[in-house]
Write a structure and sequence with these properties.
By secondary structure, the protein is an alpha/beta fold. Helix content is about 40%, strand content about 15%. Helix 1 packs parallel to helix 2, helix 5 runs parallel beside helix 6 and helix 9 runs antiparallel to helix 12. NADPH dihydro-nicotinamide-adenine-dinucleotide phosphate (NDP) binds next to strand 10 and helix 11.
């Protein structure tokens, strides 16, 4: 698989990444191991996780899976921010939480360093220069090679770069936002900002958590699906599967897929890949066959006709704000 540099850095990543949110616990270690092996064998080099995924269990599984792999050939991205316990210091982007969290992540993943350490949200309760100094110190200590953000606004990214320059600390090299055919908010602010600042973009939930595979229909939750297995009450997937407008849009997207002879999930991933600002699209999967199918997105030729058909299917209704 071709690689390209992530933002203003020398770190080369593949256009598809593989993520471990929910799916590792959903199928257990054996299944996770098979999927990671498959993803790596198909050439994916970027593995995304977070301390909070299954409260550390996803990182631990990844550590066990990767013991048999050459560490140098893998780019490990993990995250810090969400609370790992009820303790008032055990969350956020304070120096204390960042320093303690990285040690937990390294221990769970049985590695000496993380390639990309991402601030999982913006923390308005901590002075931004404290967070950035902490990231710079972890880089100097060799525990982290690069740092990035997730779900930060354009203004927050601008401020982070200004502070990093002033402190002579490396800037964030990437931002990780949601982006898919239902959720396009980043097109207005985050994508132009990342292009301006040369920050790479690694997007999550390209299939809107499975909805864009077409498996859900009104009132029907398929057996074995993420919703059936995990519930996720009140969360994005739960909201989408009971939203008539989401099904209207899905119907239009399905028609485009049929017209152009492209499988629906493949079209949804290819639609993300069409944006030059996106460096890597993080795939989620509960089984190998899904990775196998979704990887075909790399083969889709994104023509002007296909682009126009998707644009007309994916715009013009309030779902833009989901
Ligand atoms: P997707 O939107 O791609 O959803 C993945 C799920 O969709 C799979 O687990 C599977 O669910 C279903 N699916 C995938 N492919 C197919 C297919 N071909 N046919 C049918 N069903 C399919 O991605 P995720 O929501 O999993 O997010 C991907 C990654 O992004 C995460 O693992 C994580 O690393 C990252 N992430 C980051 C966040 C952040 O805040 N920074 C937030 C969320 C995710 P099933 O079969 O169980 O129905």
């Amino acid at each position: 698989m071709e690689t390209q540099t992530l933002g203003r850095s020398g770190l080369r990543v593949t256009p598809l990444a593989f993520g471990s949110w929910l799916t590792f616990s959903q199928g257990g270690l054996k299944n996770a191991s098979k999927m990671v092996d498959y993803a790596l064998e198909r050439g994916i080099n970027l593995l995304d996780t977070a301390d909070i995924y299954d409260n550390g269990a996803a990182e631990s599984m990844l550590g066990r899976i990767l013991t048999k792999r050459r560490r140098q050939h893998i780019v490990i991205a993990t995250k810090v921010y969400w609370n790992m316990s009820d303790d008032s210091n055990d969350w956020g982007l304070s120096r204390k939480h960042i320093f303690e969290s990285i040690d937990g992540s390294l221990q769970r993943m049985q590695t000496d360093y993380v390639d990309l350490y991402q601030c999982h949200r913006f923390d308005p309760t901590v002075p931004l220069d404290e967070t950035i100094r902490a990231m710079g110190d972890l880089i100097r200590m060799g525990k982290v090679l690069y740092w990035g953000t997730s779900c930060w606004t354009g203004a927050q990214l601008h401020e982070a770069c200004e502070i990093a320059d002033r402190l002579n600390v490396p800037r964030p090299i990437s931002e990780q936002p949601p982006y898919n055919m239902l959720s396009r908010q980043i097109e207005e602010d985050v994508l132009p900002t990342c292009a301006e600042l040369d920050i790479g973009v690694i997007n999550w939930s390209p299939l809107a958590q499975g909805f864009l595979s077409g498996k859900y229909s009104p009132g029907v939750i398929p057996e074995g699906s993420r919703k059936a297995q995990l519930g996720l009450s009140g969360m994005f997937l739960d909201q989408v599967i009971s939203n008539d407008k989401a099904y209207d849009r899905l119907g239009r997207i399905k028609a485009v897929a049929q017209q152009f002879g492209i499988e629906l999930p493949v079209l949804a991933v290819a639609w993300c890949l069409r944006r030059p600002e996106l460096t890597s699209v993080i795939l989620g999967a509960s089984k190998i066959s899904q990775i196998e199918q979704n990887i075909k997105a790399l083969e889709i030729e994104w023509t002007a006709e296909l682009d126009a058909a998707c644009e007309s299917a994916c715009s013009g209704d309030p779902l833009q704000t989901v």
